[in-house]
Amino acid sequence: MPWWVGKENTREYLRKVNQNEKVLQYILFQPGLFLDYLAFPYKTAKHVDPLQSVFDYHNNRAIVVDGHEDAIMTLTTAADVAAIVARAVDYEGDWPEIGGIRGNRVTFSQVIQIGEKIRGVLLPLLNSTED
User: Are 108 and 68 in contact (CB under 8 A)?
Assistant: First the structure.
């Protein structure tokens, strides 16, 4: 995915900065997608703007790539990420390079089923291919 390139470049840079001695303490959190985005077009967090995604509950539809219905994704609320980051900043010890945060692990199909239950309708699936 194109947006990961910048993240990996940043990680590589930070490793080089600390290559000979620890100059900068950092930690990598991998919270997945903000659960708040599933509320599009409604804003559910002060500092997270609504983002339209493949799960469009507002218009009762979803886009699924053929063969990836059971792909696992992680969803974490912005509030949970903020709480963990605040605790990490206050932590007196050394941070590990990779932080301990994990939201809800669900499949695409499960996210769609939850949306159907909440909305009370079956979501028509717009199937797509990887191309």
Answer: yes
Largest separation between any pair of C-alpha atoms in the chain = 58
Residue type, 116: E
Whole-Å CA distances, 29 to 39, 85, 88: 23, 9, 10
Helix locations, the chain, DSSP H: 4-17, 78-90, 108-119
Estimate to the nearest angstrom the gap between the alpha carbon of 7 and the chain centroid.
Answer: 14
**Residue closest to 45 by CA, chosen among 84, 82, 78:** 78
pLDDT digits (tens, 9 = 90+) for 96-120: 887 778 788 999 999 999 989 988 9
| pTM of the complete model | 0.77
